[in-house]
Structures are given as C-alpha cells and as structure tokens.
Amino acid sequence: MPVALTPTTIYRSDAAVVSHVDLTSDTGREAAAFAWLDEREQSRRERFLHPRPRRQFTLCRAALRSALCRALRCSNDELSFGTSAYGKPFALVGGVPASTDFNVSHSGRHGLIAVAPKRRIGVDVEVRSPRRDIDGDIRLLFSPEERARLNEANGRRRLELFWSLWTMKEALLKALGTGLSRDTTGFTIPPATSFGDGRVDFRFPDMPATRWQLQALDDTRFVAAVALEIPTPSVPDSIGQNEPDTGGSGT
Amino acid sequence: MSATEDRMVELAKRHLNLDRDLNLDAGLADSDVSSADAVSFIKRCAEEFNVAIPPEAVRGIKNMRDLAHYIDARAG
Fold first, then answer.
1. Cβ of A233: how many Cβ atoms within 10 Å?
2. Is the CB of A30 inside 8 Å of chain B's CB atoms?
3. For A8-49, how does the pLDDT look when each residue is reduced to its tens digit (9 = 90+)?
4. Class of domain A3-112
C-alpha cells in the first residue's frame, strides 16, 4: 500500500491497535485507495450519492485492508469480508473466517480503524459538532443517570460530555455486534469515564458475565472511544460469528 | 411526496445539520447524518407521529423513505 494511505497508530495495547485515517479530500489518494478495493467494494463505492461519504468509504476501506493484511499476515487479494446477521462485518482470508475482530468509524475528516485478535472490538469517532437541540437529544439518547450528569454540565463542557458518552455507547454497541438496534437509553456509561479517567470496565446489566474495557481516545480534533471485550474462561471465541448475547435491555 | 414524507422533511430541516436537500432514498450515512442524529431523529419521528419504533426495528430502516413507510403502516 502507498505510504500516503497507511493509517497512523493512535492507540496500541497488547490486545488491540487503533489507527487514524486522514479523510481530507485528495483525488490522488482516493484513486490509490480505490485500486486496493475488490470488485464488490468498488461497486458499493459507486452507489454512494455524495462525494464525502464516497471518499470516507474508499479511504477507510483501503486503510482497513492494509491494517488487516498486516494483522492477519495475508495479501490483499486473499482478504474479503462477510457480514453477521446484525450487519457487523468480519474478515475472511482465503474464504475462511479470521479470528481477528475489527471495527471502523468515521466523522468529518477523521476515520478510525480498530483491530483486535481474538476479542470483540468496537470504535466510534465524532467531531465536536454543535447540537441544534441538545436538551431534546439528551432526553432521547441517554439513560436517566447520564441525563442527570449532562444536565449538571454547562456550555462546552456539556457538549464534550455529550460526545464522550455517545462515543462510548456506540463503541460498546458496535463491539457487541448489535449496533443501534439496542436502546442507547437502556444502559449507563460509568461516571469514571467522564473527563480524565479515560479507561474503565463496563458490563451490560443483562450480560453481567461479559466484561468490556472502555478507553477514551479524544484529542483536539475529535472525541472517540474504543470498547474491547475482556476475555474470561467462560467466554468462547466468537469472532466470525458475531452473534450478540440475547436478552432484554437493562437500565 | 406523501404527507408523512413532507412532515419528515420539515422535521429534518429543524433538527439535522444537512448541507443539502434531504434525499429520501439515500442511506442516512450517505446523507452525512451522524449516528447520534440518526437515532435522535428516528425517536423524534416516533413522537411526532405517535408511533412506537422499537430499537430492533431500526436495523431494517435503511433510508428516510423506509422510515416513512414504517410510520404509515403503523399510524392510526
């Protein structure tokens, strides 16, 4: 892959790597990225109606291919993608599901790619766009405890907390594999993750056996979070299946 | 455009940061709508039309026209 397309690592641990992709408009980079996509992806790209989402998809997918080829020690031609029943994609090498999970998010000019061998992972990035009706959004998107925290904050701090809580919620739901088909008001991000304490354990109320590590990845350009499954002896390796736990949502 | 779609477009103008006219057949991601905006907008539509849209139904709603059909099929 051309050096200009290689994503930049912004977080690395023993269990996961998160990389940043520059999504600034650049015809040359986009053409180079397009060449890395397979036929299905190239055709999917053409179905986007507007240039920005088309560019986001192209650059992120090429960077994802680069990251996965490195993690899975395979060539770009060997790599393809399947999709779980809940719409979460997974990697195949030579047609065989790989035991490495990944997740992609983008917002504005920023894309993030998270890769984790043998664990479920989810990532979300959001630029700090202002809200037209932040009170209404808080009421509709967050749990009662989170609403109380948000309502204690003011101005810029409130907006920062809004995006911090939202990125953690979405990272968790993407790691779980359900995406937004699970109610975001039905679980609460622990207060310790607000400002400063950027790393915390989390359990869904209806899935207490599965632990998740939440890590804030904010910087001056965006708010972001990664959610990584913490393995326990009773949790089987579920990568490639991506079927979420079942059960009602907690509070 | 149906009456439901008209009202949804008005709701979108009030609540979504769109830099172009809303295309009812475009996916929300293709419309540059953030995930927070998408979830919030669907819940606002549920309130506006007095229709329950459970989270598990959101997965089947790919664009605004799907949402309008979902609402029309359940509105009283």
1. 5
2. no
3. 999 999 999 999 999 999 999 999 999 999 999 999 998 888
4. alpha beta
